[in-house]
Amino acid sequence: MQPRKVRLFVATSLDGYIAGPDHDLSFLQTVERAGEDYGYAAYAGETDTVVIGRSTWEKVSSDGVTSPFKEKQVYVISSSGNPESGPVVFYSGNLTQLIRELKSLAGKDIQIEGGPQMIGELLNSRLLDSICISTIPVLLGNGIPLFREGLYPLKLELLQVKGFSSGLVQTEYNVIY
User: Fold this and answer.
1) 65 domain residue, yes or no
2) Is 38 within the bounds of a domain?
């Protein structure tokens, strides 16, 4: 059995923000093209578990964008918790402990959907295995950064770089601990 990997697939502005002020994601629309998902469907097909931050969950579920998570076990990380509802579990425990437990189980890779706090915790705990960043050619100036301050230096191994006619550039890395 090959060990499960913990993977992040994320879009940022050129200046490193995953959302603008007030969680505004409208900058993503600048690269929307009919029939182009920038590899997201292939990535999602390699995962069977989603660990997602509560703010991210609230944003995607209010926008009606939960379809990529169908047929997956979903853990919503929330300090307040909520009762389980079908394949969605609101988890208020230790994130690191949850990820270690999920990695020990058989299955496909684990998909991370969250902000800088979750990503930082996974990097500091040495649990995030790969990062795929889709850089959108727009400068936001401020907002929610992809990475929080205080992460110790990490080496990354470049796996591939892809450019698209929309101007989006995708870089994929393995995290070296």
Assistant:
1) yes
2) no
Structurally, how many domains does the chain consist of?
1
Contact 40, 140 (CB under 8 A): no
Strands, E assignment, 101-147: 109-113, 130-136, 144-145
Instruction: Give the pairing type, strands 130-136 and 73-77.
Output: unpaired
Per residue in 80-90, pLDDT tens?
Answer: 766 555 678 89
Strands 47-53 and 73-77: parallel
CATH number at residue 70: 3.40.430.10
Amino acid at 15: D
Q: Where are the alpha helices (DSSP H) in the chain?
A: 40-45, 54-62, 95-104, 116-124
CA angle 154–155–160, rounded 5-degree value: 130
* pLDDT tens per residue across span 19-29: 999 989 999 99
Q: Which domain holds residue 80?
A: 46-110+122-128
Pairing of strands 155-163, 169-176: antiparallel
| Residue 6 placed within a domain | no
| Rounded Cα distance, 74 and 67, in Å | 12
Domain-embedded: residue 74: yes
Question: Counting every residue, how long is the chain?
Answer: 177
